[in-house]
């Protein structure tokens, strides 16, 4: 319990130091010109210069779909020599608009076969700059929960460069029982500009324990949890990062003593 409280207190102090504005700063920070500000979805994926491009189709045609994916139907075709203007981008898909005001989605790979000022276009497929400005991320990991094999998956959304909310699902497979945990928490990243970036978090959740024993009648247990976490994200390349994490749980039981659990995880994440 003491370790959990100490880690939570350290996180609160870090959040106050990095998120709260400094009292001494009386003048607002200078802002870039409107033409240079990022306006695309999932910041960092598309620069303002790319968004302003008017492109000429060099291939026989490009297909416009109703959504950013192969599962969406083609509703319009722009033939060679036709022009399109970029509106925004979502992962590997680009939304464009034609002179007749038809808007649709085209694969970034196909857009690289179009021309701007007579030259082929290339798009940023992910970089450390876009990693720093990410909003959504998710991933899978494996690890250990008190000697049991642990599998986890999570998704997170960043409100600011320092603060994010994450939802995590965990499944631990042990010799005596199986355990399912569902967590939600706040995660603080004090140094978002670092390639190896530490993070800290606190949160709450639910735990369900399913015993294997058939010799003695046992009952499934459902309890609430509190947790504190610490770890690091390591940027690899393009949209990928390695994530290592330690998480300590406090299981709030209806018995006299609460339980403490420790989990270690290592996995791969993507941002989008």
UniProtKB/TrEMBL annotation:
The keyword Disulfide bond does not apply. Residues 1-24 form the signal peptide. Keywords: Signal. Residues 64-110 form the SH3b domain. It comes from the Bacteria. The keyword Kinase does not apply. Pfam families: OMP_b-brl, SH3_3. Residues 142-272 form the Outer membrane protein beta-barrel domain. This is SH3b domain-containing protein.
